[in-house]
Structures are given as structure tokens and as C-alpha cells.
Write a structure and sequence with these properties.
There is one protein chain. This protein is α+β, with helices and mostly antiparallel strands and 142 residues long. It has a single domain, classed as 2-Layer Sandwich (HIT family, subunit A). Helix 1 packs antiparallel against helix 2. The longest helix has 18 residues.
């Protein structure tokens, strides 16, 4: 477990389960360029592979807290892209929170993106979905 004492960045939101900080890609000036990360505090959650049906409530709560925070920042939920990377660049479960209103190109290659809504849906259909689901990871410079 960690808290905002463990990070040097501005913490936009925190509770017992996660905290939200700005990604280095965002200058924190223009909400049109907003790019946040929600980092989960449970160190056993390293990637979506560690998620199961017992985490659905946590993920839904995270999504609602993201919506509230982004509303406060002036970003409407229909302009948000909420996703995980698989494989992640670092192994602490985190959600990318990106304002795509101005440019979807800021998301880069979609080959690693797994949408939060898809993760919730998959776990609701099968609580053990990420134990056996195959992901094909490509390296793309496109």
C-alpha cells in the first residue's frame, strides 16, 4: 500500500483504494490535453491479469470517482477514454484517464489498450476471465 506521501506529483483524488495523479504527458494547464493516471494502492494488483470478479465493485466505484473528478475539472464523460495497458509499462495496476475531445491521436497505438468498461463487462460475464484470456501484444511504431 502507498499513499500520496509516496508520490511527488499533485494528487487530484485519493481514497483507501487508489489515487489520481497527472501523467507526465499533461502540462496540467489545459484540460483539453488532460491525461491522468489512477493508481491502485493494493500492490497485489499488478495488471489486469490479477483482476477477478471480486474486483468489479472496486472498478465500478473507480469509474464513478473518475467521472466526478473529471466533471469538477470541466471534462465531460463522453470525452473520456478510460483504459488499462496490457502489457503495462510498470506493474502496478493503473487506469489511464484521457480527454480525447480534441485529439484521439494522443492515445498512440491501440494495440495495448483494454478499456475499463470492457474489463468490467468481461469480469461480470466470467469472474475468472483474465486468468486465461489470451492477449496478443505487438510492437507497433505506427
Amino acid at each position: 500500500m502507498f499513499s500520496n506521501k509516496d508520490v511527488k506529483e499533485k494528487v487530484y483524488f485519493e481514497n483507501d483504494h487508489y489515487l489520481v495523479i497527472a501523467d507526465y504527458k499533461w502540462d496540467q494547464m489545459s484540460v483539453d490535453q488532460m491525461y491522468l493516471l489512477m493508481i491502485f494502492k493494493d500492490c497485489t494488483l499488478r495488471s489486469i491479469r490479477n483482476l477477478n470478479g471480486s474486483h468489479v465493485g472496486l472498478l465500478k466505484n473507480a469509474r464513478e470517482n473518475i467521472y466526478v473528478l473529471c466533471d469538477q475539472l470541466g471534462v465531460h464523460r463522453e470525452h473520456l477514454c478510460l483504459y488499462f495497458h496490457y502489457r503495462p509499462s510498470y506493474f502496478r495496476l493503473h487506469i489511464h484517464i484521457v480527454n480525447i475531445r480534441k485529439s484521439i491521436a494522443r492515445l498512440g497505438s491501440f494495440s495495448r489498450h483494454v478499456l475499463l468498461d470492457d474489463v468490467i463487462r468481461d469480469l461480470e460475464m466470467d469472474p475468472r476471465y483474465f486468468e486465461y484470456n489470451c492477449y496478443y501484444v505487438t510492437q507497433c511504431d505506427c
